[in-house]
Specification:
Radius of gyration: 53 Å
Structural class: mainly alpha
Strand content: under 5%
Shape: elongated
Mean pLDDT: 86
């Protein structure tokens, strides 16, 4: 991160350097126009270079053919050497001659409008030629000197001129490469703009949903307040409180009733009764639950069978049942709690709102990230243009 910051600072420093008096300036919007114009000039120069190389190939062909003609007339008859060596030298001379003719033919038929491709083909042809002919050339020079050296000299002369042309156009090639790199960066900017547009549409949609959701939340809150202030809701709350009070009173009186009954005596009394022993046991262990099953009818029946005439117990049972009836009557009056259901809905809407706000923030950060990336690309392009000695404003 420190390196990136230092690099950005350095680039910014370069861009802030005082421009030369005659330094060309263009706006960012005119970059493509400038690139197109500059590219045309470069392509014209490279096209001229290709034409010049073709002219050199033609000259090479004429000069080399003359030298090959001379080479073909070379005789070793007067050479005082073994015939086998003479034959070997002549054989290598013929092979070398054919390789030179093949090279000339390949160069003559080269066709390309792209300078880089053109020189790549030439370089490949000469590489293959050298690989195939070097050994033949060396073996030929054993008995043949000037004539074969003249052929080699023609090729060397061409290569010297060719290398000079390539060297002179290296700047054009570098500029062409730079133009390609700048265009790639411009495409990235355009892609970023398209992506930004899509994100902005998403943010617009989310914003619309947030607005709609906020209105729903406002409506639900208003509805909750309306219900809370209604007579119906207040009566409902009163009934709920009465119901809670009655449950407490009923449970309290059931506990009092249980204490009024001597279960030890009843257990001893009905210990041999298959019919009543289980009932006594159940009441003793789960009094409240079994009482509520029949509102104490079974309990009254056992008391009667045990000849227990306790008016207080009967009155307590009657009082408990009376309160139970009142409880169920109030229960039937209690309505669905609209405040509770609306509050649940409100929490759900608020959760959705938080999710949308998070999504909007995330998309906004993407916009910021894209903007930062585009700014970096623009700074990089401005730095690239300094190589053209041009300031992009």
């Amino acid at each position: 991160m420190k390196i990136i910051k230092l690099l950005k600072k350095k680039i910014a420093g370069i861009l802030k350097e005082k421009p030369k008096a005659n330094q060309e300036k263009i706006s960012f919007e005119d970059i493509e126009k400038y690139l197109f114009s500059n590219e045309e000039k470069i392509q014209k120069n490279l096209s001229d270079a290709i034409k010049l190389i073709h002219e050199n190939i033609t000259s090479l062909t004429h000069e080399t053919n003359d030298k090959l003609d001379t080479l073909s007339k070379v005789s070793l008859d007067k050479k005082n050497e073994d015939e086998r060596i003479k034959h070997l030298v002549l054989t290598n001379k013929q092979i070398y001659t054919k390789e030179v003719e093949k090279l000339l033919s390949e160069l003559k038929h080269l066709k390309s409008h792209d300078f880089n491709d053109f020189i790549s083909q030439i370089n490949l042809n000469f590489f293959e030629f050298k690989k195939r002919s070097d050994d033949k050339y060396k073996k030929s020079t054993f008995l043949i000197g000037k004539e074969i050296a003249d052929v080699s000299e023609c090729i060397s002369k061409f290569m010297k001129n060719y290398s000079k042309i390539v060297s002179e156009n290296e700047g054009n090639m570098q500029q062409l490469k730079l133009i390609s790199e700048i265009r790639a960066k411009l495409r990235k900017i355009e892609l970023s703009k398209s992506e930004k547009k899509v994100i902005e549409e998403t943010i617009h949609k989310i914003t619309s949903e947030i607005k709609s959701l906020k209105q729903k939340i406002k409506d639900v809150i208003s509805e909750i307040e309306k219900v809370k202030n209604s007579r119906e809701h207040k009566e409902n709350l009163d009934n709920i409180e009465k119901q809670k009070t009655l449950i407490l009173e009923i449970n309290k009186e059931l506990n009092e009733l249980k204490l009024m009954i001597d279960f030890k005596t009843l257990t001893e009394m009905f210990h041999s009764s298959e019919k009543y022993r289980p009932i006594v046991k159940n009441f003793r262990e789960n009094f409240n639950e079994h009482f509520k099953e029949d509102n104490g009818v079974a309990l009254l029946h056992i008391i009667s069978e045990a000849k227990i005439n306790n008016e207080a117990i009967r009155n307590k049972i009657t009082d408990i049942n009376s309160k139970s009836e009142e409880f169920y009557k109030i229960k039937s009056l209690i309505l669905h709690d609209k405040v509770q259901s609306s509050t649940y809905e409100l929490k759900k809407l608020e959760s959705e709102l938080n999710t949308l706000n998070d999504a909007k923030e995330k998309e906004s950060k993407r916009i910021d990230k894209l903007k930062s990336a585009v700014d970096d690309i623009k700074s990089s392009i401005k730095t690239d243009f300094l190589k053209f000695d041009v300031i992009v404003e």
